[in-house]
Amino acid sequence: MVSIKRPLLSGVAAGLAFGVLAVAAPANAATTGKPAVVLEHGAFADASSWNGVIEELRKDGYPVVAAANPLRGPAEDAAAPRSVLDHVEGPTILVGHSYGGSVMSVAGANDPRSRRWCTWPPSCPPQVRPP
Hints:
The chain is an alpha/beta fold. Helices cover 31% and strands 21% of the residues. It is built from 5 helices and 7 strands; from the N terminus they run E-H-E-E-H-E-H-H-E-E-H-E. A 5-stranded mixed sheet has the order 2-4-3-6-7, with helices on both faces. It has a two-stranded antiparallel sheet with strand order 1-5.
């Protein structure tokens, strides 16, 4: 079962203090039985660039979180989505757009719950998109 832990709200508040924003999943995410999708934007965007994708995924019943980062380099920027991942229970699908793919590679390293990885575009073949 996938759910977003209550401490995510405090993580978001802490993130805002560092210029980081997370878009939290809907409250009923724990009942979906689907993996949480964690999204990371590219270098010339922010978390709101995922709004259309978030809407579609939520219509399909996926819990979704979009993390923003301070754009200081993959290792440092990975702290934002890593913080989000620390508050998501159950399996996850990590998706990064362009530069966000590098960030997600660092954030999700050695995370056994991360079932799938996708960098979009250009190398996100259909078999790694959410089922």
